[in-house]
Specification:
By secondary structure, this protein is mainly alpha-helical. It has one domain. The protein contains 10 helices and 4 strands, in the order H-H-H-E-E-H-E-H-H-H-E-H-H-H. A two-stranded antiparallel ribbon has the order 1-2. Strands 3-4 form a two-stranded parallel sheet. Helix 2 packs parallel to helix 10. The longest helix has 30 residues. The protein starts with a helix and ends in a 9-residue tail after the last helix.
Length: 280
Amino acid sequence: MAWRKEDSLRHPAGLTWRWVLVVFVGAMLAIWLSFTPDGIFGKADAIGYAVCHRIDLRSFHIGERQFPLCARCTGQYLGALTGLVFQAVVSRRRAGPPPRRVIVGLVLLAGLYGLDGVNSYLHLPPFVASFPNLQLLYEPNNVLRVMTGTGMGLVVSAALYPAFVSTVFRTYYPMPALASFKQLLAVLVCAAMVSCLTLLQINWVLIPLALISAGVVLLMLVMIFTIMILMIFRKENSYQTLGQAIYPILAALFIAILQITIMDIGRYLLTGTWGEIPFR
């Protein structure tokens, strides 16, 4: 009888490592949940804590409650999510690189992000104290931070979505996922509208935005690690549907949680607090 790939999936050895993977993911998640702050916002804070400085003055607030991510990172991850959803709906499994005019627009968005980021960094107290007479470009604010962060989120999504589709799926199309400057403008408007919701200061709007922005951090890490796992084990283009890739995705989730845990522990040991990095 000829050997078939489906037979290996039913073999006990094949099932064993899958159960081991599930147990490892559950154990890693339990460890992370056990030492991070209580409550759903506490867990969101712990995710943001791994990737963001979380400076209070540079963050949005729900009443007295600080967002899990600073204003720039909030815009960045909300923008990335908007870009991913837009491409998934409009482009589906198109995974080609964008045309030149779209690349120029993305470079401009990345440049604005870098410019505002550097200007904001130069306004940190240690730098101002060291160079009191330095003339800076302009006074930074959270509106500029969230907007430039949104633009950078779109840049990241424009690279991540095609890479994920072209690595995971057996069938995809080489046409650009962002096919025109008009599409770039459309997704930019959508992302800007989502990020602008943070400026309304309405609690029932801010609460889901805060939690979603933290969740996107985990989502993007899982997508990146899924790509890496499939490339390392030479399993690219092995799946017809996303559900068939559940085990590589679970392995990526394990690595993502592990990375967040290590970064959380390292930062806590250095600072002794779940709060902002003390730039003083």
